[in-house]
Amino acid sequence: MLNQGFLEDQQISFFPFPANMISLPNQNLKTLSPSYHLPQHSKPEQHLTSHFGLPLQSSNANYWAWGEVGEIISNKILGMGRDDHHHHLGVSGMKMKKMKSRRKVREPRFCFKTMSDVDVLDDGYKWRKYGQKVVKNTQHPRSYYRCTQDNCRVKKRVERLAEDPRMVITTYEGRHAHSPSQNEEDSEANTAKLCNFWL
DNA sequence: CGTTTTTGACCAGCGC
DNA sequence: GCGCTGGTCAAAAACG
């Protein structure tokens, strides 16, 4: 049975990503273990299927990948977070006022699963960690990251599979309103490769 | 010393 | 209402 869900009223698309769509720029590969390119056979994890409300799709590529094209309904709280300046005006973060629910904002979200011994894959963007949580029925904590770019509210969370600690689940939420970090000298190549990702 | 991470507390949503 | 759970905040600590 699927989890209650934000998915029920939206269209869902699958991403049986070809391996080359997900592969990271060469520059970044050195930070990854060899096993990153040597996936082993694995089976879809049942609890993940229900968590995301999506059947996993296998491919013969290097990755299990799945996701959605769609939107989620945000909560009705406005003025949260440091990219919103309401709380600098005397409303403390923990005493935020509930504002009238604006038009519901929906954010695209998708996730994928890779085999890697590093938790945070270098995707060309700069992230700041803002939380970590141990979720039920898992032994590895889930980490929450936010894009450091101003006016960019993209978030991602990273967790490791309890059943197979070699696997990392990365979930992106939102869409970047800017290009990946300009610090990398071959950022053009990065952008070229990653554009498949974010479009 | 500016930026990022850590970490416990807080919050909202859900099920009962 | 209460308790559980996942997501977020923010102060302090760590980092470079």
TrEMBL record:
* WRKY domain boundaries: 116-181
Report the PROSITE patterns cross-referenced here: WRKY (PS50811)
Instruction: Give any Gene Ontology cellular component.
Output: nucleus
Cellular compartments annotated = Nucleus
Q: Name one GO molecular function term.
A: transcription cis-regulatory region binding
Keywords of this protein's UniProt record, alphabetized? DNA-binding, Nucleus, Transcription, Transcription regulation
GO process annotations (BP): positive regulation of DNA-templated transcription; positive regulation of sclerenchyma cell differentiation; regulation of DNA-templated transcription; regulation of lignin biosynthetic process; stress response to cadmium ion
- Please state what the protein is called: WRKY domain-containing protein
From what organism does this protein derive?
Lactuca sativa (Garden lettuce)
